[in-house]
Amino acid sequence: MLSGTSFTFCSMQLIEAIDILQITASRITYPAVTSKTMSLKETCLICFEETPIAQMFPIGTCYHKYCLSCMKRHVEVNLQNGIVAQCPHKRCKCEVNIETCKIFLSRKLADIMIQRIKECSIPATEKVYCAFPRCSALMSKKEVLEHTKSSFASVGGRKCMKCHRLFCINCKVPWHYDMNCYDYQRSETSYSLAEEQLLKSLAMKKLWRQCSKCKHMVELDSDADISFAILAELNGRVEHVPALSGMHNIV
C-alpha cells in the first residue's frame, strides 16, 4: 500500500503476451555462467524451446535474447535478402552486432554482413564502386579520395582501397592514361557509333534481321516463310527457333 498517496489518473491498455515476456526478460539480471548455473534455462521467444542460458544470444542494447539456432537462421535469411539483420522483436529496431554474430556465422557470411552494414552506412550519393569487374569494391567518395593521394585525384583518378588499381570516378572505367575524361568519352562515343554502323552494314549484306522482341540479330533461312534464328541452344540441343518467339538464348 502507498500511504498518503493516491492515483490521479489511470488508463487501460492491452499488451500482447509476447511483449510481457520481452519486458520481463529484459529486466532480469542473470548470474554469471558457472558449472552451477549451466542447468539454468530460458525460453527462446522464437521457437519457445527451453534453452540453457549459455546458448542464448543477446542482441545488444535492447537486451532481447534468443537461442543461437534461431538467431543463426534469422541472420542468414536477412543476408540472403540483402539486408542487415535487426532484432527479431517486431517493434525493436536494434541492429544485430556483427562481432557477436561471428560465433555462429561462417567467414563468408560474416564478410557479407560487414559489406551490408557498410552499404547502409554510406549515402547513395557518396557511394563509389571500383571500376574493375573482378573487384567492384564499395567505398565512399571521401575515403577513396584520401586513399588516392596522387596528382590523378584532381582529374578524377582514384585508387581502389581493395585491389589498389587506378580507375576514373567520372567515367567509371579503369584509368584512361594519356587522355582526359572529355577526350575519352568522345572516343568511346565515336567507337560505339562506328561499331554500330559496321554491324548494320554487315547485317544488310548477310540479310540479317532484328528480332522484334529480343532485339538480337538473326539470320534468315532461305526457304523459310518465318524468320528463324539458326543457332539457338535449347536443353543442350542446337535447333532452329522462330525469331519472333522472343527467345533470348541465341548464340
TrEMBL record:
User: Catalyses which reaction?
Assistant: [E2 ubiquitin-conjugating enzyme]-S-ubiquitinyl-L-cysteine + [acceptor protein]-L-lysine = [E2 ubiquitin-conjugating enzyme]-L-cysteine + [acceptor protein]-N(6)-ubiquitinyl-L-lysine
The record's Gene Ontology biological-process terms are:
protein ubiquitination
What are the UniProt keywords, alphabetically? Metal-binding, Repeat, Transferase, Ubl conjugation pathway, Zinc, Zinc-finger
Q: Which cofactor does it need?
A: Zn(2+)
GO MF annotation: an example: zinc ion binding
- Enzyme Commission (EC) number: 2.3.2.31
Every copy of the RING-type domain together lies at 40-251, 44-91
Question: So, what pathway does this thing act in?
Answer: Protein modification; protein ubiquitination
Instruction: Give the matching Gene3D superfamilies.
Output: Zinc/RING finger domain, C3HC4 (zinc finger)
Q: Where are the transmembrane segments?
A: none
Q: What does this protein do?
A: Might act as an E3 ubiquitin-protein ligase, or as part of E3 complex, which accepts ubiquitin from specific E2 ubiquitin-conjugating enzymes and then transfers it to substrates.
Give the family per the record. Belongs to the RBR family. Ariadne subfamily.
The molecule here is called: RBR-type E3 ubiquitin transferase
Species, as recorded: Prunus armeniaca (Apricot)
